[in-house]
Amino acid sequence: MADMPVFMIDAIRVLSGQTVSPAPVWLMRQAGRYLPEYRALRAEKGSFLGLAYDPEAAAEITLQPIRRFGFDVAILFSDILIVPHAMGQDLTFTEGEGPRLKPPLEAARLEELTPARQHYAPIWETVRRVRAQLAPEKALFGFAGSPYTVATYMVAGEGSKEQAAARLMAYADPGRFEELIRAISADTLEYLSGQVAAGADALMLFDSWSGSLSVSEFERWVIAPTAWLVAELRARHPATPIIGFPRGAGSKAPAYARETQVSALALDEAADLEFVVANTPDTLPLQGNLDPMALKAGGAALEAGLARIREAMAGRPHILNLGHGIDRFTPISHVERLLELHRR
Ligand code: CP3
After folding, report:
1. Domain extent listing, the chain
2. What is the pairing mode between strands 264-266 and 139-145?
3. Residue of minimum CA distance from atom 47 in ligand 1
4. Ligand 1: distance of its center to the CA of 79 in Å?
5. First-last CA distance in the chain
6. 127 near 195, Cβ under 8 Å?
7. Which residue in the list 34, 148, 153, 191 is annotated as catalytic?
8. pLDDT > 90 fraction of the chain, expressed in percent and rounded
């Protein structure tokens, strides 16, 4: 027993298969616009991307929700679209419009882009700074978008309804779409590997749009590239847990967990917990899945939502979280209430 670690981070214990009670808790998009201290810094610095590429500001924003609420996990303040930016698309965020990537790959070819890998350096520096400032019992999660979700933005050049342009390219020119997925996967591997080298304790892969794919397309464009990324990351960083978030996967979630070999499964608010619990191994850690609107509503909806999750997750390695990002108009007092109910 002499070389057992004296001290371990709760969230990492859960991700290695242990049950911790009460479950560690954090919220997707916990660093962001519902926080007045974020809005203040954002107003001062002017732009979201300016913040993301400024390690001092990004580290501060990453730590803001930990200071205010004492969450168990800090999630790196960055964005999934840093990868297409580094691959050579021009990235802008316009207030009220969402992200724009130019040129959209619907019209342009990947080979026409000029990669700018130096974009990753400030993000890695943010990770280094956060890990140095974060209490040792708190976890720092790094993240990236999954290749399919990133491809949906690269192809359309923006957030798109039902991801139609990417799905169309995947059917009409699968060879070209495969090349794009491979290129994103290769860059994402380096980006995430750098986050681990800089001090990230675990990684999360956001596949926000995986829910729009048919079963066979899901196998090819979600499961296969994720399995590749997980295997490559694990070969380089065997001790670093990887959480997969196949949002909207529904009944495909157990196959996703089994075939990708992710360390843990993050569940959206529509996921059927009883189904997932019954159809995945007891040792597979689960993260989620409170409805962000139940948190925004507060009161009885929040209490009932939390109680339902805690009951379904009893005895299971679990990290409490939302099923998707926190809504920007969520009252701070509802977040405080959630933590009070969960930790009492
Ligand atoms: O707190 C955290 O969770 C960490 C930071 C984080 C951001 N984006 C910051 C951000 C994370 C993990 C993301 C992931 C992300 N980004 C996803 C996957 C998760 C999901 O929500 O499905 C996606 C699809 C994106 C792409 C993206 N980034 C969009 C569509 C937008 C515009 C819409 C919006 O909410 O404004 C962003 C901008 C963005 N990313 C903001 C933040 C805090 C808002 C920027 C601002 O105006 O201040």
Report:
1. 6-343
2. unpaired
3. 48
4. 6
5. 33
6. yes
7. 153
8. 94
- Of the chain, the percentage scoring pLDDT greater than 70 comes to 98
Beta strand spans in the chain (E): 73-75, 90-94, 98-102, 139-145, 202-207, 242-246, 264-266, 286-290, 318-322
Note the pLDDT tens digit of each residue in 190-244.
999 999 999 999 999 999 999 999 999 999 999 999 999 999 999 999 999 999 9
**What is the number of the ligand 1 atom nearest to the C-alpha of 149?**
24
131 among known catalytic residues: no
Which residues have a Cβ under 8 Å from the Cβ of 247 and sit 6 or more positions away? Answer: 206, 207, 208, 209, 210, 211, 268, 324
Closest CA to 267 of 203, 319, 202, 215: 319
| CA of residue 6 to ligand 1 center, whole Å | 36
Q: Which CATH architecture has domain 6-343?
A: Alpha-Beta Barrel (3.20)
Residues with Cβ within 8 Å of 182's Cβ and at least 6 positions away in sequence, in order, are: 225
Q: Is 141 in the pocket of ligand 1 (CB under 6 A)?
A: no
159-191 pLDDT per residue, tens: 988 999 999 999 999 999 999 999 999 999 999
Cα separation, 244 vs 288, in Å, equals: 12
Query: What's the rounded mean pLDDT across residues 80-85?
Result: 98
> How high is the pLDDT of residue 6?
47
CB 67 within 8 A of CB 31: no
